[in-house]
Fold this sequence. Notes:
B: alpha/beta; Rossmann fold; 22% strand; globular; C: flat; binds iron/sulfur cluster
Amino acid sequence: MNGETVAGQAAVQPAPRRKRSGIADFWAQYRRRPYGLVGLVMLAMYIAVALAAPLLTPYDPRKTEFFLADRLAAPIWARFIIPRFRNAPPTSRYTIHPDQWKVERQERASLSFEEAGDRGETAVIRFEPSVEGGGGARSELSWKVHYGFNPPNTFEGKVTYRVEAPPDGMTRLSLVIVDPEGKEYDIWGTAVYGEQDWTTAALDSRDLQMKTRLNMTIFDDPAKVIFSTKGDYRLVLKASSESPSAEAKLFLAPAKFNILGILHGLLGADHMGADLWAQLVYGARISLIIGISAAVIGVALGTTIGIISGFLGGPVDEFLMRVADVFLSVPTLPVLIILSAFLGKNMWNIVLLVAAFSWMGSSRVVRSQTLSLKERAFVEAAKAAGASDAYIMVVHILPNVLPLVVANMVLMMPVAILYEASLSFLGLGDPRIPTWGRMLQNARAFGAFTELAWWWLVPPGLAITLLSLSFTFIGNTVNEVLNPRYRERS
Amino acid sequence: MALLEVKDLKMYYRTLRGQVKAVDCVSFEIEKGKALGIAGESGCGKSSMAITVLRLLPSNGHILGGEVRMDGLDLLSMSEEAFRKAIRWSRISMIFQGAMNALNPVHRVGNQIVEAILTHEDVSRQEAVERARRLLDMVGISPRRFNDYPHEFSGGMKQRAIIAMALACNPDLVIADEPTTALDVMVQAQVLRAIQDLREKLALSMMLITHDLSVIAQTCDDVAIMYAGKIVEYGTATEVYKKPLHPYSMGLVSAFPNIAAEKSPVRSVPGFPPNLVSPPEGCRFHPRCPLADDKCKTEEPASVEVGGNHHSVACHKVDVTAGGIDIWVQ
Amino acid sequence: MGFRTYLIRRIVYALIVLFVILTFNFAVFRLMPGDAEKMIIDPRFSPEARMALRKQFGLDDPPLVQYWKYITSLLRFDLGQSFATRRPVASELAERLPNTIVLFLTAFTLTMVIGTAVGVYAAQHRGTFAETFVTGAGLFTYAVPTFFFQLLLLMLFGYYIRIFPIHGTMSAPPPDGAFLRFLDRVHHLILPAGSNVIIGFGSWALYTRNTMLEALGQDYIITARAKGLPRREILYHHALRSVLPPIVTLIFLSLPGMVTGAVITETIFSWHGVGRYLMDAVLQQDYPAAQGAFYLIALAVIISNFMADLVYGLVDPRIRVGAGERR
Ligand SMILES: Nc1ncnc2c1ncn2[C@@H]1O[C@H](COP(=O)(O)OP(=O)(O)OP(=O)(O)O)[C@@H](O)[C@H]1O
Ligand code: SF4
Ligand SMILES: [Mg+2]
């Protein structure tokens, strides 16, 4: 339609020159195209997210922050839309400070508090020396916690302690969970002979050790069994000592007790309990960096080759274009797979590889444009004035092919992003950085499917899709404005 | 009764900027065996008029009124299917402007002619091929080239092949839209001669569209001068050429001082043709007319017959122009 | 340039690309930093065996000799032994090739047929829903990563609504009877092939529609209309026929893309084919296997490129008879 109108006008007045200079003019034309605007808004959102990533999430996926929640935890909002998550637990983390322990029972033992250097305040249980036939000393401390959700899958804890005792002394330590009905679960225990420096014992409901201690099989889940009712639970620390020769002391630093949530954050957690929202948000950075740098490098390469080829012509042209042909007929993805496997899984390797296989298109376009520019008067004039080839290429040709180059570059970005995503998805990405492709790979490899965890799968895929779409919209619009001749007919 | 009768024909293109009034109340007739030349500046609606007659409008072209009759048969009210079968090519054929691309590059030239014959006539393929060969021969192409592809033909040969194709179904009327513009001068002359010969040999009726008044003067019986979607002057070729009465025609004719002289492209009348979306009020020519006065700016001149021989002119100042002064001398 | 010259040029060109691929293979697998030995000889072999193999593979020969031997052995499809299975790579590939071909041909043919048909339809029905649909589908092809779409389908149809198998080329054990076995294979084929078709046909349709519209705007179409040809005739015999050369070329030009796309598809659907073999080999650092699979894929790409040239030459009379340059 548009073209016909222009034809109708052409007879009346000399056709207005479409290519005007200046950013303002460009913008005046650009803003009239809805797709271009939609693309810009979307891209702006991505850039904002990429820049503001640390503000959008407390976690940094580049550090190993595992088990923020249970493996494959669902998003918090799953509570409202998926029945099986209606009353699922979020993550609860408790630090039990020494003074929070409540004394339940003391036999020939006493509790006091003491500052212990960098450990801060510690609780100290003193056990009197044991007497012949009279047995040892014992102490029971308890800490109360309310639990009001469906059973969790996992709980974990840490007890940090030190023992001062004579070499013949034996100190026992154990943790018992008492459920609201009074049933006791002996989840952990240890015995210390003589003295022991600060030790942290980690206990985990997934460990076989705990399961055996609780007389469960490896298929049972202590967390599910223990926290199967709602109400007040008590964590009871039982300590006892048999120390014939002298008094024994047990020091307790703050202990930790965590119930890992089945619900977590905006997007849940991956197979390592790491935050998915953080990965998604930081992934925007990576994708933008990779997409933009690969496209810029690739198109810069293509432009250089295109200008040289078109301007110099002859055997140089023939050679460069044959090289381009060969690159075009090589199966890009397999080559990238092989090379990135050999060169090592590094982000910049991927950028360079993608760039190395994406210059051919722009070099052809630039070449043909250069060919026609070469015939123009100003180039002839420059030649006659004795300008060197290099000078003409940089000063006269380059500015004139720039509009093409810019559009090409924008259109190259989604391609680069997709390549990176494919490689990451195939497990060839940089393992140290969170990318959307890797999220998808993890989702596939580590159970998103069996758990039907679509919230793990859909966001990164959608993020890639919309980002490529926004680049496509922008690129096409830039093309329409700057290179009307190449406009696709509607 | 005239072979082709066009009356008050109106065809506008709808565009985003409004309606392009490409053909606006155009009337003319073509008698059997006669040739009508149509001349005018680029963009004045010549081609539009031609494709309106053949009902080959693009999707935004709309016929808004008027009549086209062939031997009294109303062509505009016929169904598309009937028109296609009964009129296109079998009665009216057309040689298109820029005919270099009028042949399909993927089909053999001969077959493209045969296809036209087989569409309209109940003959065996054998016969059609025979006729196509004869036609090629007639326009000066060796029948041996029957199986060539268009890209193997030169420009002039293509154009002659198209002429042969236009004659394939013995049409009553051939519309030739600038049949020579795409060709170089030597070839132009050849092709024109071929057309002229055939016209004489076959007593063809023709509508010849061209920029070039001298071609019309050589080839045609009648001439219609078009300006901005309207016919401003209409009459026999000799009369209009010798004694044009519309200021615009006078300008065109004076651009060709001598028929025999070296051909040159139309040296246009000073000024630019108007925008057909919103043409000037009154006489459409008034912004460029040296005789224009207030009446011309407001009142549209009706076409009036002057003298005999259906010489008609649409101008308020016929009395002045008929005086024989050269209004275009500065 | 006659067709023969054209053909010879394309053959020479294909050979050049083949040569480049072979050299690339050699360079990557033999000349990479580190000892070439570990790329070719299983490090688990005993030192004596390794020495013997070194000799057998000619690793101590000068590079040019190695290069020559390498190229000739690859051309003979002597691709070495897989580290993982200790079987000849060539026979492992031969086992998988049919699976890949089945998947590939199904997806490819359907994409092509559906895409072209939809494109032609949309070109005929401008301004209707068909047009919006084609544009949308084209955009879909362009923006949605294939593997994402395939993962979605897999989750939806393999796990939510369990109507399709989630992996493999056939059930284990396969059902009895030839017909049931055939159905079982088709059942396994639907997701991998279908996802490729859905992702791919859009750009096809869009391309077909655009070239059709371009053709329909050509002068020779107006001539055909003026000749009074029926609509169908104009559409198929003139418009479609004249866009056939670019479309057919593009069909064949898109072969390489689909060949390489097979790597991802096969990985996702655990399809027992060449692409997945390549991925497995790369991830397990089974170098002979990776090299063999890559060589096979590259060969397929070269052949399909050559076929594109060949078919283009055959469909376009400007090349088949007389002057004309490609593209
Ligand atoms: N499809 C169309 N849509 C809109 N306007 C059109 C269309 N085709 C032609 N026009 C306009 O209609 C007017 C008449 O065009 P037409 O092609 O009939 O002129 P012409 O006299 O044949 O010119 P030329 O001598 O250059 O061939 C022109 O202003 C042209 O721009
Ligand atoms: S009507 Fe008036 S303006 Fe029009 S041509 Fe005649 S004199 Fe000129
Ligand atoms: Mg015209």
